[in-house]
From TrEMBL:
The keyword Acyltransferase applies. Keywords: Acyltransferase, Transferase. The lineage of its organism: Bacteria, Bacillati, Bacillota, Bacilli, Bacillales. Coiled coil: none annotated. Residues 6-163 form the N-acetyltransferase domain. Pfam families: Acetyltransf_1. This is GNAT family N-acetyltransferase. Gene3D superfamilies: 3.40.630.30. SUPFAM superfamilies: Acyl-CoA N-acyltransferases (Nat) (SSF55729).
Length: 163
């Protein structure tokens, strides 16, 4: 897929059902310590992920993925940081959508005066770690053996990059 075929925009109310479905398809024990990401209701989803707090990738008429962002705390002294999470629909993975979304977030963050992007990733997800490193993220810390997943202890890696 040509990256020019991927459009990005801020999420809207009408995107909630599709974004909930992407969460359901993407998040599992390989990439999150939660059992599965299933939302109780559309209302709960919208409370946690309000419109405008994700950038969505649109291919034709379909949403192929999103990158969510929010300040890590409500403290004004922490407002220069955005914490992110990213999910790409399985049908669109490894086609450049993640890179397009990351570039769009870096641009939006710069426009908003954000100085730092941060994220957490499981050490058991080396593909994600490699992707983040290719986007300029570096490890800033690690919670060793933080989670017990599928019979093994897994480190929780904190990564960051400057905007």
């Amino acid at each position: 897929m040509n990256p020019r075929d991927i459009q990005t925009r801020l999420s809207e109310m009408r995107d909630a059902a599709v974004l909930m479905e992407i969460d359901n398809l993407v998040w599992d024990r390989q990439n999150t310590p939660a059992e599965k990401m299933e939302w109780e209701s559309r209302e709960k989803y919208l409370q946690s992920c309000p419109p405008g707090n994700q950038i969505v990738a649109v291919i034709g008429e379909e949403i192929g993925g999103y990158i969510g962002f929010k300040p890590p705390t409500p403290l004004p002294s922490n407002a220069h940081v955005l914490e992110l999470n990213i999910a790409i629909h399985p049908a669109y993975q490894r086609q450049g959508i993640g890179r397009v979304l990351m570039d769009a977030l870096v641009q939006l963050a710069a426009e908003r005066g954000v100085r730092k992007l941060s994220l957490r990733v499981l050490a058991s997800n080396p593909g994600a770690v490699a992707f983040y490193e290719s986007c300029g993220f570096v490890e800033q810390g690690r919670l060793v053996e933080e989670f017990w997943l599928d019979g093994q202890y897994v480190d929780d890696i904190f990564m960051w990059r400057k905007v």
